Amino acid sequence: MTNPAAGTDLAALIDHTLLKPEATREDALALAREAEELGTYSICVSPSMLPIETTVKVATVCGFPSGQHAPSIKAAEAADSVAKGADEVDMVINVGLARAGEDQALEAEIRAVREAAPAPVVLKVIIESAALTDEQIVAACEASERAGADFVKTSTGFHPAGGASEHAVQLMRATVGDRLGVKASGGIRTREAAEAMVAAGASRLGLSSSRAILDGGTGTGY
Hints:
Shape: globular
Strand content: 15-25%
Distance between the termini: 28 Å
CATH architecture: Alpha-Beta Barrel
Strand order of the largest sheet: 1-2-3-4-5-6-7-8
Radius of gyration: 16 Å
Structural class: alpha/beta
Low-confidence stretches: none
Mean pLDDT: 95
């Protein structure tokens, strides 16, 4: 299967990310200015940083980082973020539901957020792939698609099981085909690793060290 991101400028695939709990509003504004300079697709910041003015797209997170929030709370958080100007919402699933095979409940919580953040808002579903088996990854991607998500995403970058892997990205792409986007995030710290994720099927990248990675160096953090 062809990768829809193949041949695209790497910066244009990046959600330039700042989700550290100690981040200040000044840090978020600096992130936005850097994103504009680098030409990244978007910034991704915590909901408390909204609204934020920038010429790039604005993404935020929902149910972050554990996903162990009631669906109604996730939906309310997403709706509030959209009201404050978010173009995209990256929601964390209840990973326990995926591990327990409770696919209907998983689909229902994703659908609740989708209804709270309707198109044209882009909804990305973080499945925490490193904590799931291949079968659970496939089921979570299928539930995301049924619920109307636009993307499936590997990781929060905060789970002890780890972040993105080429295998997970390949499996997610094989499951959703060209119908949904696939975002790789968590532990991508070199340009080589970023390009490997794109080659595996990622159409978006979550990076906190975008400048270092684009310059060919080694990043830190998310």
